[in-house]
Specification:
globular, 31% helix, single chain
């Protein structure tokens, strides 16, 4: 299997916009991440890319921590990159961005993002900012990113 990103690629640790900041997701975000998605499951299920029903689904706080640890491990091993979306004013978790290889397609990144229901107005601006960031600063040949309306 080919590497997702070249060995010499310096993976960005941050994306800043006026309404949100992206930083690598890790277990230190567990409680806020859990609150963000569990309070917004219906909204996330309606977000482009998530309507297959596999997520969000009920999990315990401990299961969520294990999921965050898996994502952090993928980031360290450069197999996939998951970022927490933070409110720049209070640093509360307001969403998440997942960047993983598209199965069966070398050089293509599959991207998903969601925001909590209380920040639904950021769905489109987040997708647009992330798509622009990935196209301009990342080494992917192509992106598959459900953008929706």
């Amino acid at each position: 299997m080919a590497e997702f990103v070249p060995p010499d690629f310096d993976v960005p640790r941050r994306l800043e916009a006026s309404e949100f900041v992206l930083e690598p997701l890790g277990p230190e975000h567990n409680e806020q991440d859990y609150d963000a998605w569990t309070s917004s499951m219906d909204h996330i299920a309606q977000t482009p890319g998530f309507p297959d029903g596999s997520w969000p689904h009920e999990m315990t706080l401990d299961e969520n921590r294990a999921d965050l640890e898996r994502h952090a491990g993928d980031f360290l091993d450069r197999r996939g990159f998951t970022y927490t979306v933070l409110d720049p004013a209070d640093r509360h978790v307001i969403g998440c961005v997942y960047i993983y290889p598209l199965r069966g397609s070398e050089g293509t990144a599959q991207v998903l993002s969601w925001v909590r229901k209380s920040h639904a107005h950021l769905d489109v601006p987040l997708r647009e900012a992330v798509a622009e960031w990935l196209e301009s600063e990342w080494p992917f040949a192509a992106l598959e990113y459900a953008r929706g309306a």
